[in-house]
Amino acid sequence: MKTARILLFVLLCFWLGRSAHAGDCPVDDLRLDDRIMVGVAVGATIEDFIAAFEAAHTDHNITLEIIDSIEPRETYLLQLGPPGLSPEIVDLLEEDLDPVNYPGLLQWSDFLYEVETAEGGTGSLWFNTGDGGNNLYLGQYPIELMALPLAQALSTGAGVAVAVLDTGVDASHPALQGRVLSNGFNFITNDANTDDVGDGQDNDGDGSIDEQVGHGTYVAALVALVAPDVKILPVVVLNPDGRSDIWIVTKGIYYAIDQGVEVINASLGTTYRPNGFEAAIDDAKRLGIVVVGAAGNEAAHCREHPAQISAAFGVVATDDEDVKADFSNYHDNTFISAPGDSKLLGPKPGQFDPERSIVSAIPGGDYAYWEGTSMATPFVSGAVALIRSQHPEWDPDDPDQEPEFIYNAIEDALVSTAVNIDAQNPDFPEELGAGRIDIGAAVSLGPPAPTLGDIDNDGSVGVKDLLSLLGSWGPCNSCHFCPADLDSDCQVGVTDLLILLGNWG
Asked: Is 472 an annotated catalytic residue?
């Protein structure tokens, strides 16, 4: 498969796929007409809603059956019947499926829509770097542009977990060894296998097989490039062709929340605005978890979700000169911009300029060039991890703090230090977020991150920290504030003890 990818043409992505569109993007992701997802209102039951919905549509003999749920959040996936409903009837049902029509029964509702990687939508694929890939990875242009050495002198992301919602992660890759948590989950195959591998199927029927394998590994390694001591939680929500649906992604968001991560990277999107995404991301925000999303690659003034949901950090892609990448979406709701563009040396696909291109890991131990808003997004996720690591004392349940103070503090740090790039982008006024992210400046606003194991934050690792760790032994009471959980796996055990002892003094 790797050889085929190296030779694979980019489906004219670098030329034809970059033409601009006017106005907001239409909802062009496929609607799955036989399923809906709902969040039930407090005090109601799913049975109450089903009875009301079926009673309202007896003229079409409509039925609903529960086929999946997210407990205890009163969130359900329902099978719509009878089979063979016409698109016109489904349109009417979708219009009716609104909480205002079912007062006291629904918090939110969605028909099921597809989700995909932004790169899958444009046909963009990676190209192998050949020899010297690791050096290119460690020396690529975003490092100096975003002042990473300055940031990493203060924080390396230790003690923070970032969930990568994607195609999977190759945990054996040298860039990721020792950084990938074992408690991830695969919502495509419904098992614990989170490897970034193909299934040999053309899942989207476009004539290409496993075209987005490597996407999750690539994204995860860019997070690790920014925050080298971070832990990656792999959550597979996209098939090897980079596609799934909003139910699977919603389940992935909630799973990451429940595993106690501090950051969720979502380099994926849909042109439909899912209410389920919004509910899940609002829950994350209340717990101090930042969701970072890719703005999309339609080259349009476009609202791709979850990036454009107000509680998410949506990311536009720029190049090595702070010019908006010609493929990147843009919008006045976007949060920030980050490097995500790669430049060709000549007209032949795959001939990238190593000094002006994004490089990251691909399965099998190799490295590759790629580009897209998916590649810009993990730089922001890594920056959030660095800031979060500086403040292990931040407790989302602290009654003396304002609600959502963690989210707001991180947002303020990134926005207040972003580089103004209006002069380089006169055609996109106030549509590239706060500017291009300056990770060094943002991290410099905070203190040096304490040594991992300094649980009481007194500047050293000693007896008090050891006693605190031993007193917390076992599963964390709260995955969202568990200072003795040094390896970010939501429990205090032998690995945490070894980390503390290794940093003694």
From this structure: no
